[in-house]
Amino acid sequence: MLIDSHAHLDSPRYADDREAMLRRAWQAGVGAVLAIGIGEGPADMHRTLDICRQFNARPECGAGIPKLYASAGVYPHNTAEIDDAVLARLDQLLSEPETIACGEIGLDYYHEGAPHETQREGLARLLEVAAERKRPILIHCRPKDGTADAWDELFDILDAHWPQTGLGGIMHCFGGGWEQARRSLDLGFLISFAGNLTYPKAQPLREVAARVPLDGVLVETDAPWLAPAPHRGKRNEPGYVSLTAQALAGLLGVEAGEIASATTKNFRRLFHIQADVGNW
Ligand SMILES: [Zn+2]
Questions:
Q1: What's the rounded Cα separation, in Å, for the pair 6 and 3?
Q2: Distance 104 CA to ligand 1 centre (A)
Q3: pLDDT tens string 13-64
Q4: What backbone torsions phi and psi does residue 127 show, to the nearest 5 degrees?
Q5: Whole-number pLDDT of residue 264
Q6: Ligand 1 center to residue 67 CA distance, Å?
Q7: Which residues contact 259 (CB under 8 A, 6 or more apart)?
Q8: N or C, which end of the chain has less CB nearby within 10 Å?
Q9: DSSP per residue over the chain, as a string?
Q10: Span 123-147, pLDDT tens digits
Q11: What average pLDDT score do residues 231-238 get?
């Protein structure tokens, strides 16, 4: 069984076929999906939790459609919208049992969105809420090409706020170098690879992936974006996570089944999910 550790199931691009898409994921061996709750902005952080509840209540959950988990958070470019009301709503969402993670949160200096200072301050406030609710964090970090500012500043903030919580997290859609991978692992984070691992120009990323220990990896789709080859350019969906798992298996020199069992074990360890609880 595979777990897609990062998919935007609330995307309007699934409005017409969300159930069929989840059935295809199950057929492709995906037993669980962590659905990301950032919405189009803080006003709809709750949408993903609603979707999780809707599908988890079905008798097919874990027997025809994957078990769904939710996250909630404020995307770096929406950090200017953070106020006490947004933080209170986030806190409330994180208190729900289905909401196992806070994210995706972090720093994005690649696209010009919120000022960097606003992103850093916002991230620090979000970390406080996540720590209080004891939720691991899902980090999005994207520097400008050819720089590492975003990574350096991210690690400054994490070093100050996160190790003492003992909660760890996930470096989502990892795109850094070995130095950033090593620092992430040292901080107790899992490194999640997405479909871009399969792209022709991603050779540096493949070289990093080949060095990450099996107990530090996850796979994800980041659906509806970043469809792995041969679906690149099309809408992505959780069922395609098997293609990224296959690519990672090749890089690590193991069977695809080993990637499935290692990533599932890693995911359960991070979120304290018992293997014998639930039917997946
Ligand atoms: Zn994402």
A1: 9
A2: 6
A3: 999 999 999 999 999 999 999 999 999 999 999 999 999 999 999 999 999 9
A4: -60, -35
A5: 97
A6: 19
A7: 214, 217, 219, 245, 246, 248, 249, 252
A8: N
A9: -EEEEEE-TT-GGGTTTHHHHHHHHHHTTEEEEEE----SSGGGTTHHHHHHHHHHTSTTBTTTB-EEEEEE---GGGGGG--HHHHHHHHHHHTSTTEEEEEEEEEE-SS--S-HHHHHHHHHHHHHHHHHTT--EEEEEEPPTT--HHHHHHHHHHHHHSGGGT--EEETT----HHHHHHHHHTTEEEEE-GGGGSTT-HHHHHHHTTS-GGGEEE---BTS-PPTTSTTSPP-GGGHHHHHHHHHHHHTS-HHHHHHHHHHHHHHHHT--TTSS--
A10: 999 999 999 999 999 999 999 988 8
A11: 97
What whole-number distance in Å separates Cα of residue 54 and Cα of residue 30?
Answer: 18
> What pLDDT digit, counting tens, does each position of 82-117 carry?
999 999 999 999 999 999 999 999 999 999 899 999
* 10 Cα to the center of ligand 1, angstroms: 11
Contacts of 20 (CB under 8 A, 6+ apart): none
Q: How far is ligand 1, taken at its centre, from the CA of residue 226, in Å?
A: 10
pLDDT at 146: 87
Give 216's pLDDT tier (boundaries 50, 70, 90).
very high
Confidence check: pLDDT of 279 > 50? no
What pTM value is reported for the model? 0.96
Give Cα 161 distance to the centre of its chain.
Answer: 20
